[in-house]
């Protein structure tokens, strides 16, 4: 989910989170954020028929039809910033906040943009061999989220020099305290997370060939039970921060759809990673993480 943090006097006064019909906000987020959380309708990718990769054509048409709702979301964000009296807005890759507020007098003293995707605008960032059209759209969208920002902070897997031309400062990943406090161990199972549940097919195919390898996978499939145990060595779990981190700490390796945060956590805990990107942003994340030594890239969860 996309997040826009409104901050005043070192206190988070409110958190605005983009939502869609295809994603639910995990319960642990509300428990852990320690600030009022409000939702607004936001653009999102729609999956392909097999629920693996993002369908860009379908996503574009769908989001175009919902434009009136998105305009109302822009007004809502502006209203919340005014009513909270926030002096600083920290935005994690949310387009609406910046696009709409650029048309208005300044509401806050500082606009910070803090996300890993700003590395895509850094002059030293290397892109994977993917569609030039998709890469152009990704960079364009990223520039739009950064319009008139006071500073752009790019979370990065590795050190990169400051890019003065693009006003980008690279900073280390944001590792939560629970990760730094945990003691990793090497278990015998593979831990995983899939943003699109369609990838479960490839996990099950691997499991059929190698039933002796224990697999513990988390997913965002909200219409299922909290835990689905296929058999003694394969289980699928609803995402939970405590269970997820404990599984990460004790696993042999980690397999993921290339989300930035969990890859960073795996690197911090010394776990090798298999990355299976689900859309163009994750393609770039995975390529950069591979260059940083996190692990390898695949187009399916072939855990061999």
Q: How would you characterize this protein structure?
A:
The chain has 304 residues and is an alpha/beta fold. The protein is built from 10 helices and 14 strands. The strands form 2 sheets. The protein has a 7-stranded mixed sheet, with helices on one face. Strands 10-11-9-8-12-13-14 form a 7-stranded mixed sheet, with helices on both faces. It is globular, with a radius of gyration of 20 Å. It starts with a strand and ends in a 7-residue tail after the last strand.
Topology pattern, helix = H, strand = E: EEHEHHEHEHEEHEHEEEHEHEHE
Strand order, main sheet: write it out.
Answer: 3-2-1-4-5-6-7
Low-confidence stretches: 103-113
Largest sheet: 7 strands, mixed
Instruction: Give the DSSP E fraction (strand runs of 2 or more residues).
Output: 15-25%
Task: Describe how the helices and strands are arranged.
Elements (H helix, E strand, L loop, with lengths): L2 E6 L2 E9 L7 H7 L3 E5 L14 H10 L1 H18 L3 E5 L2 H7 L8 E6 L16 H14 L5 E5 L12 E4 L5 H5 L8 E5 L5 H10 L5 E5 L7 E5 L2 E5 L2 H10 L2 E4 L3 H9 L4 E3 L4 H12 L3 E3 L7
Parallel strand pairs: 2-3, 4-5, 5-6, 6-7, 8-9, 8-12, 9-11, 12-13, 13-14
Antiparallel strand pairs: 1-2, 1-4, 10-11
Helix pairs in contact: 3-4, 4-5
